[in-house]
Amino acid sequence: MTKVDLRKEARGRDCQVRLPGICNHSPETVVLAHYRIAGLNGVGQKPDDILGAWCCVACHDACDFRVKTNYTREELRLALAEGVFRTQQILRMEGKL
Questions:
Q1: Quick one: which of 7, 20, 69, 77 has the fewest CB in 10 Å?
Q2: 1 in any annotated domain
Q3: pLDDT tens column, 12-27
């Protein structure tokens, strides 16, 4: 099986993070947003792409704490983690994982 470019796979997809009141529901703005967990990579390094969620720019800004929201850090981290799981499931169903 050839290796799939998970970053390119995000283009034109639906946001899988879907933060109510934040998500712009625009596939044109979707990128691969990485879930960061201490101990998986070196300091300042992005995690492997398998730990990424298809995420619109609005949800990505919220989950990376670049914009202030009414969500707690824990709620944002959970939403991103769930987005990772949904993204992985879609890729698995498509035979890309």
A1: 20
A2: no
A3: 999 999 999 999 999 9
* pLDDT score for 40: 62
Residues paired with 32 in a beta bridge: 54
Supply the CATH number for residue 34's domain: 3.30.50.20
Mean pLDDT of 3-11: 94
- How many structural domains compose the chain? 1
What domain range includes position 21? Answer: 6-93
d(CA 92, CA 49): 14
Which position has the token pair 């990579």?
Answer: 41
Phi, psi of 90 (to 5 degrees): -65, -45
34 noted as active-site residue: yes
pLDDT of residue 1: 56
Catalytic residue among 9, 16, 19, 34: 34
| 72 within a domain of the structure (yes/no) | yes
